[in-house]
Design a protein that fits this description.
The complex is a heterodimer of chains A (about 80) and B (about 140).
Chain A lengths: L6 E3 L1 H7 L5 H8 L3 H8 L7 H10 L4 H4 E3 L6
Antiparallel strand pairs in A: 1-2
Helix pairs in contact in A: 2-3
Chain B lengths: L2 H31 L7 H26 L9 H32 L2 H29 L2
Helix pairs in contact in B: 1-2, 1-4, 3-4
The chains are: A mainly alpha (about 80), B mainly alpha (about 140).
Chain lengths: ~80, ~140
C-alpha cells in the first residue's frame, strides 16, 4: 500500500469553494509555479512554512484549516 | 510541464547527443590506431561549439514559447530540485574520474585518462539534468 503523505491538505476543496479558483491563479497569488501547486495538492511536496501561510492567506483562513499533519505512530 | 522541466529535457537530449557524437569519433579513431586516441583539440572545440549553439537555439525557442514563465525566478520546489540534482550529479562525476586515475596508475595511459576525465564531466552534466527530470516527475 502507498505510504500516506505526512502533510495532508484541503487545497483542492478550498479552491472549489473560492469560485473554482484555478491552480494557475493560486500559483500566481502564492508566487510559485502551477506544477508546485499540483505537487502540493497531490501530497508529493510539502511547502515551506512561508508558502503554507501564503496559501492560507489566499483562502482567508488559518494554516490548520488548509494543512493537517498526523504524527506517525510511535514504535 | 514547466519551463524548467522542458529545459532539463532539452539539455539532457543535447548533451547525450553531443557525448555520442564525441565518443563515436574517439572510438573510431582509437580502433584505427589500435590504441587510445590522443586528445583531439579540434574535436573538443567542435563539441563545445555545437553544444553551446544548440543550447542557445533550443533554450531561446523554449523561452519564447513559455512567455513570462521563462523570466520568473525558480520557486522553492525548483530550487530544491536543482540543489538535489547538482548534489547527486557530483557523485556521478567521481566514478569515471577515479576509473581514469586508476587506469593511468596501472597502464600509464594519459590519453585514456584525458578521455575518462572528459567523460566524467559530460556524464556529470547529463546526470544533473536527468536527476532534475526524475525529481520533477516525482514531485520532489
Amino acid at each position: 500500500m502507498a505510504k500516506a503523505p505526512p502533510i495532508t491538505n484541503r487545497i483542492r476543496e478550498l479552491r472549489e469553494q473560492h469560485g473554482s479558483m484555478s491552480q494557475s491563479a493560486l500559483a500566481e497569488a502564492v508566487g510559485v509555479t502551477r506544477q508546485t501547486i499540483i505537487a502540493i495538492e497531490l501530497g508529493k511536496y510539502s511547502p515551506s512554512l512561508e508558502s503554507a501561510f501564503r496559501i492560507a492567506r489566499v483562502f482567508g483562513t488559518d494554516l490548520e484549516s488548509v494543512f493537517g499533519w498526523q504524527a506517525p505512530p510511535r514504535g | 510541464m514547466s519551463f524548467r522541466e522542458k529545459s532539463a529535457w532539452a539539455m539532457a537530449i543535447i548533451l547525450i547527443g553531443g557525448a555520442i557524437f564525441y565518443f563515436d569519433k574517439v572510438a573510431r579513431l582509437s580502433q584505427a590506431l589500435g590504441e587510445s586516441a590522443p586528445p583531439i583539440v579540434g574535436l573538443v572545440i567542435a563539441y563545445v561549439v555545437v553544444i553551446v549553439i544548440a543550447s542557445i537555439i533550443i533554450m531561446s525557442v523554449l523561452a519564447i514559447s513559455a512567455g513570462k514563465e521563462a523570466d520568473a525566478p525558480a520557486d522553492e520546489r525548483e530550487k530544491i530540485i536543482a540543489d538535489k540534482a547538482g548534489n547527486w550529479a557530483g557523485y556521478v562525476i567521481v566514478v569515471p574520474a577515479l576509473g581514469g586515475l586508476w587506469h593511468y596508475a596501472v597502464n600509464m595511459d594519459g590519453n585514456m585518462l584525458f578521455h575518462l576525465v572528459f567523460l566524467s564531466l559530460m556524464l556529470g552534466q547529463i546526470a544533473e539534468y536527468v536527476f532534475q527530470i526524475v525529481l520533477y516527475r516525482r514531485g520532489v
